[in-house]
Amino acid sequence: MNPLTLATLRLLSDGGLRSGEQMAAALGVTRATVWNAMREAESLGLEVQRLRGQGYRLAASPAWLDANRITAALGAGGARFQVQVAEAVDSTNTRLLAAAAAGAPTGSVLAAELQTGGRGRRGRAWTSGLGSSLTFSLLWRFEQGAAGLSGLSLAVGVAVAQALAAAGASGIGLKWPNDILFQGRKLGGILVELQGDALGPAAAVVGIGINVRLPAPLRAAVEQPVADLAEAGCIPERNGLLAGLLARLAEVMERFTAEGFGPFESAFRALHVLHGQAAQVLLPDGRVLQGVVEGTGGDGALLLRTAQGVVRLHGGEASLRAAGAVLP
Ligand code: BTN
Question: Which protein residue's CA is at the shortest distance from atom 9 of ligand 1?
């Protein structure tokens, strides 16, 4: 994204009408540059109204992310986070992994208005819009080593579902290992990436993407059925939503550090949309297992009852679907 695009949009944030000339003068650029910025904003999913002879206005103005507002909304808990907001980055996970390698502390947070190379599980891209999604990563360091963190992404899913419910969303479910769903459609996703030794200290970068209010062109660009928070009855202010998510995530991280996945198992089961259901799992080698979802192990493994007995599956590259659903 051209840095001028967001600067131009900020001038329209109050919902008012501004002429191209006014905006060009305010930013010290040409009217053609403003015109290009408006075109880019539209291509990123924002609805720009052009009133002949008068100028530009945003149909709905997003509250832009602001590190100070996020920290203020965290209250006393804000002290355990170092929040940074980027206008556009390739991937907040990629950036925070690099920061972790350079020694960034637990509680480092990077949120982005726009990701140009957002990453999902299984090598997929994560598509998000400007001002219509929440995309962020949180760094957390663990003494127990990467081997003890296998259930972490499930515990994170529980934290996200609980924080979204607290923000007013209803009907949010989870699908093992880390899909956030509304009415069977994808509302968000979690990508946990680990750095460090299997047994020594490890760093986890927890990346979370949530569809807040997806414009139609963006929905069409995503390959799978998607949902957003607005459909779940929640139209949040994104800075406050991020603060609520961080506060709940910190509680979950602390409990996970002390007790592992065990304390989150029953909450995960209650949120798991396929619990007790006939399901199929696509394995990395292309095999498909059919069975019934029995629950999860204490390490976050999926327990699938098949004709051959109960199989334990680990997050990794496995993909779970309801029986009969088309596998990707
Ligand atoms: C998935 O469902 O496959 C996981 C999606 C995770 C997306 C988030 S958005 C913030 C963070 N940065 C990334 O590049 N990915 C994660």
Answer: 209
